[in-house]
Design goal:
Order of helices and strands: HHHEEEEHEEE
Low-confidence stretches: 1-5, 27-39
Mean pLDDT: 77
Structural class: alpha+beta
Number of strands: 7
Largest sheet: 4 strands, antiparallel
Number of helices: 4
Radius of gyration: 22 Å
Strand content: 25-35%
Distance between the termini: 71 Å
Shape: elongated
Strand order of the largest sheet: 1-2-7-6
């Protein structure tokens, strides 16, 4: 039992035994761990009193690669990062950047549909979502 290694650390254990660089890390990494850490971006949601302020950290992403949508209280930020034609023409010996896409969302129950704003500055997308007066979800019905 003492020689058992958790699945996500198996690559590091094997690499100590063999002189391969990152082959075993990539091969034995759990798909759930790598998908969440590579594909997703960091996002902060702040309740600023009369509005929500959402900050998404999107370094290296252009404005036209981002889609922000509010649908029935769910704010979704989708990034579809594509390689440019200029990059495709280069002869790289080693390249760590790649094409990727990710979507993050948050439910804001009292989000207003008017007065929304978004700004991309220094790799941080900031979305301001005003709050609306909370509506009662329960309607009393009189019995005749």
């Amino acid at each position: 039992m003492s020689s058992m290694v958790p699945y996500d650390r198996y690559g590091r254990a094997v690499r100590r035994s063999f002189p391969f660089n990152d082959f075993f890390d990539d091969f034995f990494t759990s798909p759930l761990v790598s998908a969440s850490s590579d594909a997703a971006f960091k996002m902060d949601v702040e309740d600023a009193g009369d509005a929500y302020v959402i900050s998404a950290h999107l370094a290296g992403v252009n404005r036209d690669e981002i889609d922000v949508e509010l649908n029935e209280g769910r704010l979704s930020i989708t990034v579809d990062k594509k390689e440019t034609e200029e990059d495709k023409g280069k002869n790289y010996l080693h390249k760590e950047t790649r094409e990727w896409s990710a979507t993050r969302g948050v439910y804001l129950k009292d989000a207003a549909v008017e007065g929304l704003s978004a700004k991309l500055e220094d790799g941080v997308l900031t979305v301001n979502v005003p709050k609306q007066a909370e509506k009662a979800n329960v309607t009393k019905i009189a019995i005749d």
